[in-house]
Amino acid sequence: MKRFSAQRQAVLEAVSSTKCHPTADWVYDEVRKIIPKVSLGTVYRNLADLKAEGNIIGFTDSSGVEHFDATTLPHLHFQCTECGKVIDVPGVFVNTDANEALNQLDTEVCGALFLYFGKCSECKNIN
Amino acid sequence: MKRFSAQRQAVLEAVSSTKCHPTADWVYDEVRKIIPKVSLGTVYRNLADLKAEGNIIGFTDSSGVEHFDATTLPHLHFQCTECGKVIDVPGVFVNTDANEALNQLDTEVCGALFLYFGKCSECKNIN
DNA sequence: ATTGCTAATAGGAACTATTACTGTTAAAAA
DNA sequence: TTTTTAACAGTAATAGTTCCTATTAGCAAT
How far apart, in whole angstroms, are the C-alpha atoms of residue A15 and residue B126? Predict the structure, then answer.
């Protein structure tokens, strides 16, 4: 049934190979090193499929660009407003007050995005 | 110096008039009811200016579209993945564990986006 | 091996939200 | 009034993403 093509494998390996929370474009460049004729559409589709299957996660940053991450365990992200870099915020637990409030709103929560922004250690010291 | 034009006022009033967390497009439609010849570029520029001045806040949803909000006090948002609607999650305090972790990363935090998603009470009961 | 079926592909067009550019208008300053 | 300049309308351009069409490649049953 499900066919794990060379393209899909290359996409998954590209995302897994880095901690830089890559964008579709970065993955495209990376996959082209292995499969030079790969299509950008194929990269997008495979990223979407891998995300739907739960093999990777994806989140949209404050400028509307989607980033992907092979670490599917829940964690927070920080994005530098200067250089755009996204890094992990480790070991943080989110309080559960929200769950109560969301229950009261009669919603069915299936995910959450927690994204901090500011200046990273490098950009902070430049300006 | 700063000129508070009719266009800017209409933009601010449009955002303030609703709790629906409108997009630039919604604001554009609303402002055109008052100033039919207003330009979409003007709406975008004024939204950006009002945001920079702190009169409104803006946040990007999971599909990369920016939403605006005249309630500048910190609060959380929930977006329905079915109908796209954004609603407030009231009375939730965010724990401070993240601050420690972010300090250890030597970052200078200036904001955060907390966005839950799932099905709202209406869409939940349809499917 | 050949056929038929379907998933997956390459390539590119199309779409959407947003930004940038180019005169023009109108408010404030001189 | 004249000058200056912020803000404007209208439009072109951009970036990220999705959609479309013809083609290719893997699998199952003949």
Answer: 36
Query: What is the percent of chain B with per-residue pLDDT over 70, rounded to a whole number?
Result: 92
Nucleotides of C under 7 A from a protein CB: 7-13, 17-21, 27-29
- The size of chain B, in residues, is 127
Contact B61 A62 (CB under 8 A): no
| Alpha helical stretches, state H, chain A | 6-16, 24-34, 40-52, 97-104, 121-126
Residue nearest to nucleotide C7 (CA to C1'): A3
Q: What is the pTM of this model?
A: 0.89
> Residue ranges of the domains in chain B?
6-126
The CATH architecture that domain A6-126 belongs to is Orthogonal Bundle (1.10)
Q: What is the pLDDT of residues B45-63, one digit of tens each?
A: 999 999 999 999 999 998 8
Q: Which residues of B94-111 are buried (b: 16+ CB within 10 A; e: fewer)?
A: beeebeebbeebebebee
Q: How far apart are CA A81 and CA B93, in angstroms?
A: 24
Q: Give the confidence band of A94 by pLDDT, cuts at 50, 70, 90.
A: low
